[in-house]
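Weekly modeling sync, notes
Attendees: AB, CL, MP (scribe)

Item 1: holo prediction request
CL wants a bound-state model with coenzyme A before deciding which constructs to order. AB pointed out that an apo prediction alone won't tell us much about the pocket. Agreed to run with the ligand included and paste results into these notes for async review.

Input as submitted:
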Amino acid sequence: MRWRNEQIYHLRQNKVLTEKDQEQYFDTVVRQLFEQDFPNQILFSYLENGICIGYGGLVHINWIDKNAEISFIIKTELEETSFEFHWEKYLSILSQIAFRGLSLHKIYTYAFDLRPRLYVALKRAGFDHEATLKDHCFFEGKYIDVLYHAKLNTLSLRAATLLDCNLTYVWASDPCTRKYSFNQNQIEKKEHIEWFNNKIQDPNCFYFILEDSMRNPLGSVRIDVKENNQGIISYLIDSKYYGRGLGTAILRLAEEKAKDIKIPIDRLIGYVLKENIASIKIFNKLDYSVINESENLKFYKELQ
Ligand SMILES: CC(C)(COP(=O)(O)OP(=O)(O)OC[C@H]1O[C@@H](n2cnc3c(N)ncnc32)[C@H](O)[C@@H]1OP(=O)(O)O)[C@@H](O)C(=O)NCCC(=O)NCCS
């Protein structure tokens, strides 16, 4: 409350807060956030050696469009001495929470054009200036601009390398993955190492890792090119991140890659166990045709 009142000039707050206001706000708004599955804001204390020196969070969260605004305020004394340092640190921690923890697609700041030091920190933390809203707010007798900066969580595929051997073993042996594999036996580490080395050296195998914009690995997809230019797709998402649209995203990106790799691929094929509802939904959503085989479904799509 004290920090907010001291820095009222840059906040969207039109009166000095009292203790009663603050208690009421915590009681009626903040308390409830802890009970909700999809709160419209998630707030954090920002600590240095266990002491709170700032607070903020993701606010106006839109769970459908997967975006959120960033809010942050630090102890007033630090504004002068270490503003850029703390903003940059905070933005980097919050990007991890937003992109890795919550799989949001975009985070942004909406700021009155009053604190040029903020733009230095935003730039260093990988935010782009996306828009200026001219004369957007009335402030001390005149209209001022509002600047909008944003950072996108762009998902991409990169080629798998030897360094991914351990991670891909962890993913492959996860019971959530094994449950929907055609071979449900446990995988031995030694066996995986040999298999993985062969795969990444095989000129007919294209093996990719899905990453977010912070380069966190999220899943993998393999296209094994067989006779008649058919590309057999196998993909998985790290089970920590299920249900956030990443399965759909990885298959979409794999289709783009399949059109781009050195060997021409005419048709993509995915074999799916009949009880693998999530994967069935994904292939259907991406307009694959389907053939009902005895134990599985064969999904296919012509690329040419
Ligand atoms: C299949 C897999 C990649 C899905 O990943 P995901 O990131 O959870 O997928 P998405 O979040 O994009 O969800 C896809 C759809 O399935 C639905 N879904 C996800 N989990 C589900 C479940 N357990 N039961 C029913 N539907 C489910 C989602 O709601 C979504 O449907 P919608 O688009 O209509 O909302 C993941 O479960 C996985 O890695 N499984 C093990 C490996 C595997 O089965 N690979 C495919 C073999 S071909």
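Recorded for review: Residues 22 and 99 are 30 Å apart (CA to CA).
Action items: CL to compare against the apo run; MP to circulate these notes.
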